[in-house]
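Check this.
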Amino acid sequence: MWSSITNNVLQVLRIVKAAVRVVVKLVIEVLVRVINLVLVRRSTQKKLRLQIFILRDENGTPVLHDEVSLKLLQDALDFAIRTFKDRFDVTISPYASPIIQTLPKAAPIAALDVSCNGSAGKIECSEAGEYFAKYSAGWNMVPINLGFPVSVFIVRAIGGRIGCSLGPMTDYIILSVEGTKSISTMAHGLAHCCGLKKHPDDINNLMYISRFRTNNVVTDWQKFVVRNSRHCTFW
């Protein structure tokens, strides 16, 4: 009985903390976009700070650790850097050095094997969401870095998917081990995090749904949306 009560209390606390995180970030997102619309020239070069975190499994082993897998992750990062530079006029730079880091302790199962089947918002109110919020670069309950960095968490699996993003609700995206083998999925997820929602029918578009996507064409509207995200700054 007490165990059930404790679990219910913990779940309520997770929901409250998740709601605070989401509201704070969405309010800032709206304010930044309004300021950009009023004051900022569209052609000015901007910057996005990024940090990649590799989770450790139950035994403390990184979910990515062999040379081949790490090379594929680096290829995906390089593709994201080129895409944001060439398509959005946004330079991706490390939040901290090195840009790819392995978290120090074993992650909870909920964060290692993430459920993201049509209800990604539930992640924020779960044990996994609490874990990702704890380790996200530059954030706690309130912003501690006005660069608003984005974190990429490399997990073991994402039930039936290779990547997951909650859009501007959070400051992170999730890639599975399988997702790191897709060269463009990281860039696709980062664009979601910067406000792009729809998946167009154009197979050449960065936001087209396919793990085999290798093109990164974007429309003028997509460029406008991404550049005016709070994650893309001038400092």
In short: The beta strands are 46-56, 90-94, 100-106, 113-114, 150-155, 157-158, 163-165, 172-176. The mean pLDDT is 86. The chain has one domain: 2-227. The longest helix spans residues 2-39.
